[in-house]
């Protein structure tokens, strides 16, 4: 998607506006809350670019003071401690982590700056939307929209046309679908109230 003006326009509306509803990631997450810690088992299926299944065990404290989570991937024998996303600005987050791979006997750390805006020369919105169907079962959708707004220009007394319109573009996709099953004890529900 190029935002520069050129004389070639796409031949069809399909090239201008495209919405892909086939997710490339399907997650099934089982969660159990035990004494202020969420224990999770994630089954993650990636169908693009290759089919791959990953399993992850996740421990995440539920108290706001603790800003980290533990992740263990048994297939890759990878263990990580990740911070929660730390807001730097309204649209910019920082996440840091330390990990160890038992197969390779290697320890390392990494960091990541993320935003819901931005892209490669294109305006992009990335977001997650959660829908609670009933207590203990949520669906979360990860979606993205790349867009170029329409541009209308004109000129008088120059070689440029009096009126010129570049149609905008929209490419939206549903990237991830997560089904989240959470088991909460009745005692925990009473404490939350």
Question: How would you describe what is shown here?
Answer:
Residues 12-183 form the DUF7781 domain. It comes from Lupinus angustifolius. This is DUF7781 domain-containing protein. InterPro entries: DUF7781. Pfam families: DUF7781 (PF25003). This protein has 2 helices and 14 strands. By secondary structure, it is mostly beta strands. It has a domain at 18-116 and 129-141 and 177-192. Strands 1, 2, 3, 4, 5, 6, 7, 8, 9, 10, 11 and 14 form a 12-stranded mixed β-sheet that branches. It has a two-stranded antiparallel sheet with strand order 12-13. The longest helix is centred in the last third of the chain and has 7 residues, at 186-192. The chain starts with 12 loop residues before the first helix and ends with a helix.
